Amino acid sequence: MSDDSHEHNGNENGHEKVPSRQRRRFEGISSRAYEHPADRSALVALRKLSGFDTVFKALSGLLPERSLRLLFLSDSVRVSDEQFAHLNVMLRDACYILDLEKVPPMYVNQDPQPNAMCIGLDEPIIVVTTGLVELLDEEEMRAVVGHEVGHALSGHSVYRTILLFLTSLALRVAWIPLGNLAIMAIVTALREWFRKSELSADRAGLLVGQDLRASMRGLMKIAGGNHLHEMNVDAFLAQADEYEAGGDLRDSVLKILNVLPRSHPFTTVRAAELKKWAESRDYQRIMDGHYARRDEDRDTSVTDSFRQSAASYASDVKNSKDPLMKLVTDIAGGAGDLGGRVRRGFGGFTGNGGGSPKDAPRDGRPDEDG
């Protein structure tokens, strides 16, 4: 970590609302430092894959990247010292803090839906909507800009562009059963990876903004609009806990079905995941200047990355309060009477409501809670 913490003058470019305070800079930081293990293992494997760059350069000719760039250039407002100057200050700040040498172009697009994205194969571009700019305050927006710069540093823009292209292609060939199934299988896998990449980018946003409360506020506003006086961070996080732990196996299945078509995790889940990471030793080590560096990326082991990813998933399953994940843990642990637990888990589907005498333990002792 660089010793020269970054400080911006609040009056720079005539925008007095940009806060002036010290922020740590992470010189030479590798995206591996903040990436979610599942996201990191996929990226390391792709980067190590022989011929990967050649394949995607060839594929870039098929993707409408040039068209997208021209579209934003012609029909959006490019952020600069003359236009949305306060966003330009934030963008340069984020690139400075994460040590991203080339500042990506950034556009503001007229759209009342709060959204932001980082796309592009050759070079990433960042797009934020007017709905987002109008919704968030300065510190909240700083975290979002850091989030998108984190995507750029990780190389997520390449895969996001491919995901957008394949999703569009799936709609065009929906009338071809097998062709559509094949594409949707790839899209589903990419979405699962991309949801993890969003958790990585949230961490990057926190490293840039260095204000957990602002990150939490921003996520709450995305979920509930500009009504902070009506919302509470603790209550919002309690929703995430209730979402994970509540219900029975039917709800677990519905959660999976609900999340499959999404490219982003649910907002309460993102808030809970970010808070957990902010309280972790990993985050504190980064803030203390101990982090993976870019010049070590080439020596990264694919096997180690997959092992860390597998360990992360195993830990998530083990510590999850979700009924289905508890059942999986029970199966892995060789718990008895699993048939009874499944019947009780699905409650109304069995017709016995889980309370039938035939579901009671034969030895007369109360069954242990799974």
Can you tell me about this structure?
The protein is α+β, with helices and mostly antiparallel strands. It has 16 helices and six strands. The strands form two sheets. Strands 3-4-6-5 form a four-stranded mixed beta sheet, with helices on both faces. Strands 1-2 form a two-stranded antiparallel sheet. A hairpin with a 5-residue loop joins β5 and β6. α15 runs antiparallel to α16 (338-345). The longest helix has 33 residues, at 177-209. 32% of the residues are buried.
Q: What secondary-structure arrangement, pairings included, does this model have?
A:
Elements lengths: L1 E5 L16 E3 L11 H12 L3 H9 L4 H11 L1 E2 L6 H13 L8 E4 L6 E4 L5 E5 H6 L2 H17 L1 H17 L4 H33 L2 H13 L8 H13 L3 H11 L7 H12 L2 H7 L14 H18 L3 H10 L5 H8 L25
Parallel strand pairs: 4-6
Antiparallel strand pairs: 1-2, 3-4, 5-6
Q: Roughly what is the average pLDDT, rounded to an integer?
A: 75
The separation of the N and C termini measures 45 Å
Q: For the report, how would you describe the main beta sheet?
A: 4 strands, mixed
Radius of gyration, CA atoms, in whole angstroms: 23 Å
Percent helix: 55-70%
Count of separate DSSP helical elements:
16
Low-confidence stretches: 8-19, 348-370
Strand order of the largest sheet: 3-4-6-5
What fraction of residues sit in β-strands? 5-15%
Element-level helix/strand string: EEHHHEHEEEHHHHHHHHHHHH
**β-strand number:** 6
Question: How would you summarize this macromolecular structure in one to three sentences?
Answer:
The chain is α+β, with helices and mostly antiparallel strands. 57% of the residues lie in helices and 6% in strands.
